[in-house]
Every structure is written in structure tokens, then in C-alpha cells.
Amino acid sequence: KQEVTQIPAALSVPEGENLVLNCSFTDSAIYNLQWFRQDPGKGLTSLLLIQSSQREQTSGRLNASLDKSSGRSTLYIAASQPGDSATYLCAAVYGSSNTGKLIFGQGTTLQVKP
Amino acid sequence: DTEVTQTPKHLVMGMTNKKSLKCEQHMGHRAMYWYKQKAKKPPELMFVYSYEKLSINESVPSRFSPECPNSSLLNLHLHALQPEDSALYLCASSGHGAYGEQYFGPGTRLTVT
What does the alpha-carbon distance between residue A99 and residue B100 come to, in Å, rounded to a whole number? Predict the structure, then answer.
């Protein structure tokens, strides 16, 4: 069964700290690994997409890594800000060349305190 | 432009009503998706359309009926819903199937009374 797990479920840090969110998946036959941000009551905003052949992707203060063989991905957030407070979801992408099937983790709810 | 739009933003309906949710994208994506998200839970896939044909139905009850009139539009027709169907309904699209990044709309908050 394809499952995705995120640790921790919640995280509270002071502003300026660097932090790491963890994601693990049971089936390593992924196409991609995608990280999202979700604010309360809103839709999902795509942060980073890592292709299965890649090891990492960077966007601004965000860096995501992928170790397909061990079934793990991490999202590193540098110099956290209060505006980073949100729920972060990772999704392992399965499916086919025509359709992508996302299996989501339960999310990590991040609070960055001023 | 990576925008997926959804209407309405909020919908309240009775259990005997018929209503529809709409989703639109103009990125030329050929795969479109419906997800259901309950409070404090991750989204769960309901349907996938590829090239305007239904390719995945995740055993969704027949009171939910998807439709893809053309490559830019996706509808979800609702009939005889139950209160437990109240949730945030999210639409998404992707350009290259499982290889492409999925972009999500803002969702429709559905309340069934």
C-alpha cells in the first residue's frame, strides 16, 4: 500500500530559525515528490517539485531533497519568518505518463513566532 | 499563468438539492483532478480526467458525477448529498501526467444541511 508519513505533525519555532520538515513514502516507484503549502481554509500552493531522477530542488529560502532509495524527502526552510506559518504537505506522485496520482502525507503545521 | 479557478467559493445545499462545482484552467493542461479535503486532513483524490476522458474514479459514490466538457473545464455535479460530504473540494491540473507539477485551485467550501 502506498503511504506517506510526515514528521513532526506540528512545529513551533522562533523567527529566524532554520528548520527541517520530514516526509517518508513506502513505495519508491514515484514519478515525482511535490511539496505544498496550505493556509487555513485555502487551496494548495505548490512550493517545489522534485523529479525522481533529481536529488534536490531550491527556491529562495526553500530547499527540498529526495532520496528515492530510502523513501525520504526533506524540506529545509532557512531563516524562518512569521509569514511561513502554514501547513506543509508532501505528496508522492504515482500514476502514469498521462495522469498523476498524488498520495499526501498528513502534513506538518508550522508556527513561526515573531 | 499557473492559475486554476473554481466557482463558487462557498456553497450551502440541502440533501435534496442538485448543484454543480466548476473548475477552469488555461495552461493547456490535459489532466484535471478533483480532490476532497476534510478538516485537518490531507486532500484525497476523487477523479482524474486525462484528455477529457475519465481515467481514475477512486470508488466515489454515484451522488458525485464528474464531467469534462472540454480541455479547460471540469465540473462536479452533486445530487442527494449527505452531511458527511461537507468538505473543501479542490480542483487541480497538470501538464505532463505524473511528470508534471500539479496546480491547485482555491477550492469550494461545501456545506450540506
Answer: 9
The pLDDT tens digits for B13-64 are: 999 999 999 999 999 999 999 999 999 999 999 999 999 999 999 999 999 9
B63 CB burial (10 A radius; 0-12, 13-18, 19+): middle
B106/A43 touch (CB, cutoff 8 Å), yes or no? yes
Q: pLDDT tens digit string along A55-112? A: 999 999 999 999 999 999 999 999 999 999 999 999 999 988 778 899 999 999 999 9
Whether B88 and chain A come into contact, CB under 8 Å, resolves to: yes
Half-sphere exposure of B73 (CA within 13 A, CB side): 10
Asked whether the beta carbons of residue A98 and residue B107 sit closer than 8 angstroms, the reply is no
- Residues 6 or more apart whose CB falls under 8 angstroms from that of B49 comprise B31, B32, B33, B55, B66, B68, B74
Q: How far apart are CA B61 and CA B15, in angstroms?
A: 14
Q: Do B98 and A89 touch (CB under 8 A)?
A: no
d(CA A39, CA A45): 9
Q: Are A80 and A13 in contact (CB under 8 A)?
A: yes
Chain length of chain B: 113
